[in-house]
Amino acid sequence: MEKQRESRIDLLRGLALLLIFVGHSEFSFSGFVQHSRGFADASDIFVLLAGVSAALAYYRTDGSIQWLRPWKRALTLYLVHILLFSVLAAIAAALMLGDGVTAWTDMISFWHAPSQHGTEALLLTYMPGNLDILPLYVVLLGVVPIVFWLHHRSQMLLLGLSCLVWLASGIGHINLRNWALDDHDWYFDPFSWQFLFIIGIVIGIGLKQSRPVLRYDRLVFIAAAAFAVAAIPINLAVYLGLTGPPLGELYHQLVSKTNSGPLRVLNAVAILYLAWNIRFVLVAANLPAFRLICAAGKHSLPVFSLGVLLVWVAKMLLSTTANTPLSIQIAMLVIGCLLQLTTARCLEERQRKIIQQKDVTATMSLQRGITGGSANNGAWCENVDPSDLASRTRLPKASAITRC
């Protein structure tokens, strides 16, 4: 029998996608929203959940390793990234030809040397802002089979190696090149962000093996809640300039987004632990009122891709009007979120119809097989194994995976 999807993951990912849209659109309140969730933001939560989802989707409890499926998914993300890049580059070119300016300054430099930067874009070494997120997942999904192989040998070895790479990249500022940004580095350093992703994989493997990896513990819950709550006013106070950063320059290293600072990692894990053990989250994930948000988390790639385009539109509109009224910004926010949720609803409805059609086809095939067997003196039906019956009638196999 097919297991149901973990609805809490879909809900959290859907919320993260909407918050990413708010944070990247550069509304007058985007920075406040971005820093009002503590040291970690929606990107950290999404990467952690991506690790959980990767384990649920591709990990096999029998010890075998799926190599091709994660790589095929990584290839899909790469192709979507190139498509988004091409669409936005074309739009930017049209705007430059029309009035000589573009709201996305990163694309101006691209058209100064399109051949060179086009090649760099294909090699993931030229990624303007907001186009540097999918490449991170391309790299992370590419190493998933190796992560599973190491986990089969030793979970502690996997976490230890991952932690060492994270520390080395953070302290030594080891990174990949991105010639589109001023500092010529990836904004999301994959050597640093892999640690949070692998923590998510370890959690996901535990869930796949039905182990209580996020089970409720009173002391752990209190500690996680205290940390997550305290992080909000501290981070907001520093952002708003109400106080200087505690610990001086060290604070900025501890909350570094590029290097996935320690406080960000702890905050993201604490938020996931709390969400997993607060009953309201589980109840909300199954309520009709949150169905569209869960659908957005389920169809995260197309919804995120639409969000990237909507962010660009929002930034362009904001740049054309100085001091855009707050009411207009809120209207843009609402419309953007509704468009993403509507897209998720359409995709969910389309998937439901496809599944229903497959079920109808499978039922008709089964009925024809039974009828044909009865007409043949019942010889085919008498000693048939149920699994063989499913294979002969091409019934869809049960699946317990969650797509990332």
Task: Record the SSE blueprint.
Layout: H1 7-24, H2 30-35, H3 42-58, H4 68-99, H5 105-112, H6 114-122, H7 134-142, H8 144-153, H9 155-172, H10 190-208, H11 218-239, H12 249-254, H13 262-277, H14 279-285, H15 291-298, H16 300-320, H17 326-375, H18 379-382, H19 386-392
Structural features:
mainly alpha, 404 residues, 71% helix, single chain, 19 helices
Q: In DSSP terms, counting alpha (H) and pi (I) runs of 4 or more, how many helices? A: 19
Distance between the termini: 22 Å
Order of helices and strands: HHHHHHHHHHHHHHHHHHH
**Coarse morphology:** globular
Question: Which residues form runs of ≥5 with pLDDT under 50?
Answer: 374-404
Major sheet characteristics: none
How many runs of DSSP E, i.e. beta strands?
0
Mean pLDDT metric: 87
Using the CA coordinates, give the radius of gyration. Answer: 24 Å
Helix content: over 70%
What proportion of the residues form beta strands (DSSP E)? under 5%
Derived structural class = mainly alpha
How would you characterize the overall build of this protein?
The model is unreliable at 374-404 (pLDDT under 50). The protein is mainly α and 404 residues long. 71% of the residues lie in helices and 0% in strands.
